[in-house]
Every structure is written in C-alpha cells, then in structure tokens.
Design brief:
Radius of gyration: 17 Å
Strand content: under 5%
Helix content: over 70%
Number of helices: 4
Largest sheet: none
Length: 125
Amino acid sequence: MKNIDFLKHRVLQVMGTLTFFSVIVFSIFRQWPIVLSLILGFVFSALILSQLMQAQVVVLRQSNRSLYFKYFLLRLFYYIVPCSLGFYYYSLFNFPVLLLMLFANQGCYIIFMLIRSLKKIHIDK
C-alpha cells in the first residue's frame, strides 16, 4: 500500500506542477478556455487515478474480481462528467485540452511504472 501511495503522490506532484505552470502561462496570455480545461481535466484526472489505484488494492486484497467492474463504472462516470461539461459549455472549455488532461495522470503513471520496471530489470542483471 505504501508503494501505491508513493506512486500516486509522485504522479500527482509532477502533473500538478506541470498543470500549475501551464495555467500560469495560459493565464498570462488570457486563454481562459484552456485554463479552465486544464483545471477541470486535472481535478477529474486526479480523482480517476486515485480511484484506479484504490480499485487495484481492493481487488488484489479481496481476490474478488467482480468488484473491479463496479470501480470501472465509477471511473466511467468520472470521465463522463467533465466531458459532458465540456460539450455543454463548449465556449468555456477547450475540449482537446480537456481530453488530454483527463488522460495525463494515467500516462504519467504508466511512464513511472515503466521506468521503475526498467530499473528493476537493470538491477537484476
């Protein structure tokens, strides 16, 4: 559990820093739809990542695969809410930026896991 908490904290720290500086840069240029999309995407992406990691822990501890489907549906709901907001208020949000941000934390998580696995392989040789 410590390892997963560390990874979640590290991913959110890196992506939060990148998002923060991106928000500042786009605020200077007064690109408000991009700023709002970055913030909304990061918030929901953080929720999705936290829920994904929680689902992994619960499914592995309880060995109950049927629980994973419930967590999957909840994650779909977390994707639907910002996408619906982006479509409904299309003038307030930049939809491509919103989609990019929704998947940014998961992409960063995959990169961290890949680097960690490569280091482990290198150490084992």
